[in-house]
User: What shape does this take?
Amino acid sequence: MKRRELMALLAGAAAALPLAAPAQQRAMPGIGFLSSRSPEESEALVAAFRGGLGQLGFAEGQNLEIAFRWVENRYNRLPALAAELVRHRVAVIVAAGGPISALAAKAATATIPIVFTAVPDPVKGGLVASFSRPGGNVTGIAALTVELDAKRLELLHELVPTADAIGVLLNPTRPDADSQLSDVQAAARAVGRQLVVLSARTEGDIDAAFATLARQPVGGLVVAADPFLTSRREQLVALAARDGVPAIYQWREFADAGGLMSYGPSFAEAYRQAGIYTGKILQGAKPADLRVMQPTTFELVINMRAAKALGLTIPQSILTRAEELIE
Assistant: This one.
């Protein structure tokens, strides 16, 4: 073997060491970061997570290793990657990208601490015993995302009160998709509007859903809370603009990308808090003693450029409640 080839081989082996080495040989604690999303559209969130860790004195590459595992919305890969992190004996598993990641992590281990990010109802989903006393090895940050889908429909109705029908786009593969739909249906009945239900679990399904919308007398669209739909925000915003559909979304990232309106907690703040909880566990805290955090503030963000392009006048009643107007 030539020297150049030997050096390349050794370099490749060294790069694989952080996850291949047994836990007892690690010089630094290791975190397993398991996400249903993709690294490209999660950069800002990972930065917020690292920021939370930094508040407790942890920095990747200095006194901490992070092993990232991304399934890029292929949810069936989550159990295998969660099991892989368990085999490598990471100190903490961070389950990001909704309840499906957290459920996969919990199914893989009853001993390694798990910190979830942005899970709608961890008690109802069976992740923790209660918000104040989680019990077991799981805690994290509740998001109240699904619970706000009904509120988003109410805001959209306030914006387009003459619309006889409102559409809702959901991902049917969510563990709580049925209850999510039930809440939105109840909200539509409360304001006396017909609800047009559309489903999307793939990129092609989103295109098909908007093709269906074009054939329906729908005055607006609620894009329901879901990690997959969040990962396709640029596609969703572009299609809504193309077809002239007023739409409301869960995270401000949609409004930043050109979407009309968003309402929900701060996504970045949830990841920062998850970083803080992870740091506390590395310092010796037990998940059972760390209460599940819940958001206390919610952001209504309106993209005024999008409103102008749609020919909409935002009512003063909505403007006064907005956290931010994107001009």
Observations:
- The first strand starts at residue 30 and ends at 35.
- The domain at 3-144+267-289 is CATH 3.40.50.2300 (Rossmann fold).
- Confidence is low (pLDDT under 50) at residues 1-25.
- The chain has two domains: 3-144+267-289, 146-264+299-326.
